Amino acid sequence: MSKQQDLGQLGRRERQIMDVILRRGRATAAEVREDLDDPPTYSSVRGMLRLLEEKGFVRHEWDGPRYVYLPTADPEHVRNSAVRHLLNTFFSNSIESAVAAMLGVAEKPPSEEELKRLGKLIEQAGRRRTRK
Question: Which of 22, 23, 88, 128 is the most buried if burial means most Cβ atoms within 10 Å?
């Protein structure tokens, strides 16, 4: 996302396509199509990829006879943007509510090691808050 664009600006199907590319790291139009639920036609996927490229979200490289699409943004920027959107949209910007929800829907409870690491992250966040 060379123009520092936000994934929240995209339509539903564009976000689904970006999810595939971000998850895979790189993908052809055929690979994107096969990963989509209720996929549109191949030519529709190619058209949406072209639009995403025009908007600056993906770029392409040649791989033999086909294009391979790659995200243009740093993965950490994308992750932060997605988490910010999730926090604002579903949890009224409440970190506590978001963490509580994640703990409630996790397939298995956090391990002791994960709980220790989470505790350290919370301590670090508290120290940063008091320094401001």
Answer: 22
